[in-house]
Amino acid sequence: HNATTSVLHEVFEAMRPYFCEEWGNPSSTYKFGSKLKAVIETARAQVAELIGAHSRDVMFTSCATESNNAAIHAALKANSAKKHIVTSAVEHSSVLNYCLAMEKDGYRVTYLPVDRDGLLKLADLENAITDETAVVSLMWANNETGVLFPVKEIAVICRARGVLYHCDAVQAAGKVEIDVSPDVGIQADYLSLTGHKFHAPKGVGALYVRRKAPFSPLIHGGHQERNLRGGTECVPLIVGLGKAAELARKHLADYEKKVRPLRDGLEEGILSSIPNAELNGHKTQRLANTTNITFHGIESEALLILLDKEGICASSGSACLADSAEPSHVVKAMKSDTAAARQMIRFSLDQNNETNQIRAALASTVKVARMLRT
Ligand code: PLP
Question: For 269, which of 44, 230, 259, 362 could close a Cys bridge (C-beta 3.0–4.6 Å)?
Fold first, then answer.
């Protein structure tokens, strides 16, 4: 479920009219199209509510990869004389590869390290920021381990040092409370979301841009999204994102209660019944749904092939990089022993998982690990 989630039936039903019946272009002047502007604004308000933002500060994008690129791009454009970016070694490829591209364009990038538990040292962030720093991009929750970064403190440091802060909150949405409201919330300047991690369809995301934060478009075109992002709005997907955000907010109170016991049951079961299995990621400073485990002596690929045969969907890193033979960059950044990064798998649960599924996943994992060790 950290790779993606199903579209909820309620979300699908909310979207349905906007494919074949209400198919107008929201930018048209006639009512058949223009009435859809209000539909988009309802969805914007629903997304804004999920993160404690004002509707005006939320723009729709095609995905979080675009949101992440657009945020860093905007911060760099606004500070064109500053040629330094601070990020971490464990960010998603949509941030890391954007930074790599910027390095080729002459930027210097600091990739902050993490400790064995995947945690960041705030002193490292303090030390990395210089007068040359244009933007800090640090995620809320890690997609591979679920480890949570101290986003509130990060935002305070960035604000105090006068540096723009972008937060990739993709894995946090729907799993922990996100609040960017001016007084009590996280003072991030930009915050990225994507629908398909919280039961909206793939292909729609959002970017929160704090009112006073600079923004210049990554995608130039028509006047959509108040001139911030060109391109005809995909009304059905936007409606789906809005509905999913509303439901995620409604279900948030129960999320931990439902998913944590399932995750803990799976994790404790694996660690107690499979010798030489090691948890990757801080025990408590972590999302309730994710467990990332190294099975020493067993290659991830072999485990995953056999688990797949058992009908268990797990991964050895981000789904976006699943076709590469590279070991997990996240676990590699956490542990010096590179075998740990090639011998790990991630299970990521959802509140809709059921106890019998977790029992089956545990039994299959124990079975295939024993098979591969003999
Ligand atoms: N950031 C994180 C932490 C992710 O887990 C993902 C999803 O794979 C992304 C960004 C990219 O999201 P999208 O697939 O919407 O581009």
Answer: 362
CA distance 39 to 160: 39
pLDDT in tens, 327-341: 899 999 999 888 888
Any ligand 1 atom below 6 A from CB of 171: yes
Phi and psi dihedrals of 183, rounded to 5? -90, -50
CB of residue 330 inside a 6 A radius of ligand 1: no
pLDDT digits (tens, 9 = 90+) for 137-180: 999 999 999 999 999 999 999 999 999 999 999 999 999 999 99
For residue 50, give both structure tokens: 């999920």
Angular region, 276: left φ>0, alpha ψ -120 to 50, beta rest? left
**Angle at the Cα of 336 from the Cα atoms of 152 and 151, rounded to 5 degrees:** 5
Side-by-side strand order, sheet with 344-348: 277-279, 290-295, 344-348
What does pTM read for this prediction?
0.97
